[in-house]
Amino acid sequence: MAELAALDKTARQMKTLSQALDSGRLGPVRRLVNTLTPAEIGSLLEALPPTKRLMLWGLVDSEDDGEVLVHCNEEVRESLLQDMDDEEIVAAAESLDLDDLADLFEDLPDTVTENVLKSLDRTDRERLEQALSYPEDSAGRLLNPDIITVRPDVTIDVVLRYLRLRGEMPDHTDHFYVVSRRNQYLGRVAVTRVLTSQLDTPINELIDDSQAPIVVTAEAETVAKSFADHDWISAPVVDANNVLLGRITIDDMVDIIRAQADHNVMSMAGLDEEEDLFAPVRRATRKRALWLGINLLTAFLASFVIGRFEIALEQVVALAILMPVVASMGGIAGTQTLTLIVRGMALGQVSASNAMALLSKEMMVGGFNGVIWAIVVGASAGLWFGDLRLALVIAAAIAINLLAAAASGVMIPLLLRRLDIDPALAGGVVLTTVTDCIGFLAFLGLGTAFLL
Amino acid sequence: MAELAALDKTARQMKTLSQALDSGRLGPVRRLVNTLTPAEIGSLLEALPPTKRLMLWGLVDSEDDGEVLVHCNEEVRESLLQDMDDEEIVAAAESLDLDDLADLFEDLPDTVTENVLKSLDRTDRERLEQALSYPEDSAGRLLNPDIITVRPDVTIDVVLRYLRLRGEMPDHTDHFYVVSRRNQYLGRVAVTRVLTSQLDTPINELIDDSQAPIVVTAEAETVAKSFADHDWISAPVVDANNVLLGRITIDDMVDIIRAQADHNVMSMAGLDEEEDLFAPVRRATRKRALWLGINLLTAFLASFVIGRFEIALEQVVALAILMPVVASMGGIAGTQTLTLIVRGMALGQVSASNAMALLSKEMMVGGFNGVIWAIVVGASAGLWFGDLRLALVIAAAIAINLLAAAASGVMIPLLLRRLDIDPALAGGVVLTTVTDCIGFLAFLGLGTAFLL
Q1: Which of A169, A253, A315, A352 could form a disulfide with A224 if both were Cys (CB 3.0 to 4.6 A apart)?
Q2: Which CATH number fits the domain B281-451, given the four candidates 3.40.50.280, 3.10.20.90, 1.10.357.20, 3.30.1330.50?
Q3: Where does the CBS domain lie (chains A, B) (predicted)?
């Protein structure tokens, strides 16, 4: 329950806020809200029903508007933008760092994008246009061009004097980047090294070139994984010619890692991770309907299988009563294997090279559980209906379905990935279709053979 | 598919490795492995079947052993430790930072823990014992005591000279911590501020005390959320008396955020996030059996409901053929709502204060989808069996079940949480039990009333 305790704070804030909003005492709300970080405000806005959401949005300090928009999911962001006039949007956009602005920019109404661009000075405009020229979810969208570069031939002393002159540094600066005259990346020097080295040390004696720079076209997830694997705090980003463009910092990676995890949880239920908790009923209905429609086809497929055994069902009603047990045991067992495999895929731990080993392990687990539950279910059914043959039939069906479930749980996600279909999204539907059909087929088929 | 692309590297490495391991050419394997980070090696070990896993483990540079163990999930770690003799384990433990050692320590066999403690110098031993005195998943387990503290009355110049004398700093040092004579936390000074300030500036003019320190007993998830909300890179940790104990850095938070996400995905299938991809068949069987047993009870409950309608099933076989459709549509719709709510809970966005609003929104969505799919299913069933009354009965049952599904999807997780049961773990089972029973009850009940 740690997770829940962890979020009491948000829950409490939400309670206080919605009560205050209900009571219409907006003063306290404004005071409370503006003690929160943009990320916290974004989360609160996502948690509030539409009317309260807009009330609260109206109370957020306008200088925070941009940051908050960046921290909301796309659907909520959209609803907030609709509530702002062009001037407000431009002002909000102006307040953002370039990487955040690049993130927000494409969601902005066309009426304002022009003005936003106009509001930027030439360098920033060029930088933004460059950022937007990179594909979404690429390093180019995440990089922050605010970095401190130094030449290899200067000494610590020079650097220190330059910094004092400069008077400030970008947030989270943990390295200085060493570049050639043509601004090509040579390596970096940890701020800590600069502090602990003698003043007359030339930079090139401190250069750390062990960490290969990130290429601007690299995929965001790849970058996030590198950060996690190497415990990076920041990393330099270069273009194809090794020209230094900026850096990526870990705080942006945290957002990506969260979104990625979110994607897995949500897509297993056919939802997308940008889904708004309070999405307009119409939109939510449309989105869910699609998923229900897909499932309906598979359900009818199962019914069709059952339909092949009318006679058996008419003569032995116990088959109708017990068939859901066979199907659901298969579905549960298969989902366990499927989840393990899909998680493994997301971690890059499942591939052709260990698929066979996984298959045989899961088949063995499925086999043993098949035997265990065949006995339990067989015995219970036998006692319930006082029919030994029925007991044997359902026992066999359970064993068969748990084996099939294990096999499908391993093979379906691998197959889907080969077909370039997201296993997290489609795996469950396909799997339960298989376990339903095989379950009904085995149970009713054996029933027809031995009970009529 | 970004996610998959992101992991090609791991997949490729795994392919190369397992082929090399098969061929027995261990030289290249050793060379490849030791170019990887401990996190990458850990991930590879997790991905390999037991025999290959131990072969690879034997090839890892012994100086990396400790770090790699820290980066494996508990089950894999256990299997690797069993393969090491006490000397190796002690050596591995010695090589670790205190926070990592604290993380590993309790998994070590009792035979070695003594020697590990002996191998530490007095300060480190005391620090470790202190760390272990804090509850697991608390800030105390994550804190790293390696920090640089300064007094408020010294000047930048003094600090700089001290640092050059010191010659090195702990990794990821982005702040100096200002403490009183009694080592109480007063605030911190960004390394960057030190670099950009004039030499004669006294530290107390640069103190930043805006960020409240983390209390050592705070829960890891709470801390991780704060890091994400505030874009922290590091944070000071104090005890109840505000005495500075050390700091927590964001790289450890990334692991926690990942584990938390993992927990949600895995527990929805009744798996735990430490599950080893290649867990021994016996252990895996036992763990899965429990989950299947719980599900069996719910499945029999559904069968019991069906059993109440023997007569109807005997007389109208179409009811037996179509009843899975009603149940599965309810299950899918309910799971969508459930997932949305559970995700919202994990983000702290769902609580009593917006539960009603969520309930009414989801009921409306469920209502609309109920009407849509009642018509579709009713029409299809009517055409299939050429029976208008059957069409009306199943249409009504679908509508009822989708409404029930929406209500359960919102209320079950809230109820479970009140009972202190993890909604991610138990939500699905309870929900499908409800949707199955209501689905069968509605369909077969109406069938009995209007079709006999």
Answers
A1: A253
A2: 1.10.357.20
A3: 143-206
The domain locations on chain B are 2-142, 149-249, 281-451
pLDDT 10s digits, A153-209 = 999 999 999 998 988 888 888 999 999 999 999 999 999 999 899 999 999 999 998
Return the DSSP state at B277: T
CA dihedral (B290, B292, B295, B301) positive or negative: negative
Q: How far apart are CA A73 and CA A67, in angstroms?
A: 12
User: For the segment A242-287, what is each residue's pLDDT rounded down to a tens digit?
Assistant: 999 999 988 888 888 888 878 888 998 899 888 899 999 999 999 9
User: Are the Cβ atoms of B348 and A8 closer than 8 angstroms?
Assistant: yes
Q: CA quadruple B265, B271, B273, B275: dihedral positive or negative? A: negative
Single out the residue of B194, B215, B18 nearest to residue B135, CA to CA. B215
Strand intervals (E) in A79-156: 149-150
- Tell me, what's the ipTM? 0.90
DSSP code at position B6: H
d(CA A187, CA A209): 4
Beta carbons within 8 Å of B411's beta carbon, 6+ residues apart? B359
- Cα B395-A328-A369 angle, rounded to 5 deg: 175
pTM for this prediction = 0.90
A26 SS3 class: helix
Say if residue B414's pLDDT is above 70.
Answer: yes
Distances (CA, A) of B290 to B244, B284, B303: 45, 10, 20
- Which CATH number describes the domain made up of A149-249? 3.10.580.10
CATH of domain B2-142: 1.25.60.10
Question: Do residues B440 and B326 lie in contact, with contact meaning Cβ atoms separated by under 8 Å?
Answer: yes
Region of B96 on the Ramachandran plot (φ > 0 left; ψ -120 to 50 alpha; else beta) = beta
Query: Which positions in chain A touch B18 (Cβ < 8 Å)?
Result: 353-354
Q: Collapsing DSSP states into helix, strand and coil, what is residue B121?
A: coil
B1 has pLDDT over 80: no
| Pairs of CB atoms within 8 A across A/B | 433
Q: What rounded mean pLDDT belongs to chain B?
A: 91
Q: Are A107 and A201 in contact (CB under 8 A)?
A: no
Q: Which residue of B has its CA nearest to A163?
A: B196
Estimate to the nearest angstrom the gap between the alpha carbon of B232 and the chain centroid: 21
Nearest CA in chain B to A46: B349
User: Could B254 and A255 be called an inter-chain contact, meaning their C-beta atoms sit closer than 8 Å?
Assistant: no
DSSP-derived secondary structure for A254-312: HHHHHHHHHHHHHHTTT--TT--TT--HHHHHHHHHHHHHHHHHHHHHHHHHHHTTHHH
Per residue in B141-175, pLDDT (tens digit) is 988 888 999 999 999 999 999 998 988 888 888 99
Same topology for domains A2-142 and A149-249, yes or no? Answer: no
Q: Which residue of B has its CA nearest to A266?
A: B339
